Fold this protein.
Amino acid sequence: MKGTGSMRDKKAEQQAAERTAIAVRAFAEENRVTSWHHLWSTMAAIFAALTLAALVPWWPLRLAASVAGGLLMARGFILFHDFMHGSILKHSIIAKAVLYAYGLLLLTAPSTWRASHNYHHANVGKIIGSQIGSFPIMTIEMWRKASPMKRAYYRVARHPITILFSYLTIFFYSNTLETFLKHPRKHWDAGLAIVVHGGVVAALWSLWGFAMALYVLVLPFAIAAALGAYLFYAQHNFKGMYILPLDEWSNPLASLKSCSYMKLGRIMRWITGNIGYHHIHHLNLAIPFYRLPEAMNAVPETQHPVVTTLSPQDIRDCFRLKLWDEREERMVSYKEAGALLRLRGAERESALRDSITVAAAASLLFKRESEPRGSNGA
């Protein structure tokens, strides 16, 4: 979807997005029994899978249980995510104790997550501050002006390897260690998360050996972290994404234009806690994850988002797109950006030469017009 059109069209589009946000409010109410069911069934499934990974002697089955545990951990993280938004089990002391402990184990301190993720929701689809709670986005012009150091940081932040190893790069370093070192008093629980996670890994390793720590926590969390990081990346970096100019930005419109709908099969929808319905989640963060499909089915205006999937082609496209081209209003690759910058640089040089030529011609004409004319007779 492009942002071009008359002022009247843009105003109508804004109003339509606001009406859509109002329409989905009806689904921002949880069923408490359903929420408890999802919490306990998910935690029980995680416990069962990791217990199997700990006790089964045959390594292929142990590996399978560990992978299953990782996928279930990703679902458990959605429960933590929704609790932090207040969309499920709000004000429950028991849920708070369980999910805060789960967040600490998964290197996600509640104070850090609340600050960065709430900022992300309040500023979705903006270039400035995009790196807070999300992956940074530069325009082509920003890239042209960026120093080599800034370019290197940007490349690393958005690199597939960074996402693949998000256990260390995002969850351990960015979410906890860096945050704790910068603000130890404000985000003391980030330090606690490192202690809890490291303590569990150390206990498993020292008591039962490296394999126990690997299969029960390290490998499952590595899988959950990589899956979660990619889902987050793909839902804000996809073919067809549109970034609104600041003077046109509104949260409802940005939710519909800067967030994707990730179309998944039934099993993956369950594992990912319906987070693929990301445009609806951003329209109203108070909607419980299990009601997001219901909202999309009921509100026609939410049924035509930009769609992405977990197909190899879509994954390739998501990783290929790196910079926002404000002129063409689309995400482009580094290679495309380089070609566009060279082309536009040549256009600027040509325009500059033309302006110099015109200025010189005008100056010469003026000089001739200013010269005194000779008389016509003696």
Remarks:
- The chain has two domains: 7-332, 334-368.
- The longest helix spans residues 334-370.
